[in-house]
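New to this. Please check this record:
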Amino acid sequence: MSQIVTSSADEPKPQRLGGRPKKEPSEKLRSVTTHISLARYEELEAGAAAVRQPLSQFVRPLVEAGVKARKRPVLQLTIEQDGYLRQLAGMANNLNQLSKRAHQSGFAAVAQDVEAQAATLDQLLDYFADVV
């Protein structure tokens, strides 16, 4: 009764998966540092103490609720800039109408109007390029 012995050098060793499994990138938390007034800090600290949580654990849902409520910061425009944006919206409507007229009666009939709109549009875009 002879047994055939295979050498262990031919077979790869099974990998040992010891320790805690790695988190997915979507599960990892990132830290954010911010500055707040002493009064606000004490208010948050008192709130965290009232519910017996660490300050970071108390603040996290507040921040997440604020981020979900407003995804992008709101751009504050002056009255003048708001007027220019309304002009741009009106010009888009005018260009659509000119395009329709050009298709119906030919480009030569609306060429001057298109050039005038293009000049005004160029001025407004230059203004916003300087402001922003």
Q: What stands out?
A: The helical segments are 38-50, 55-69, 79-105, 111-131.
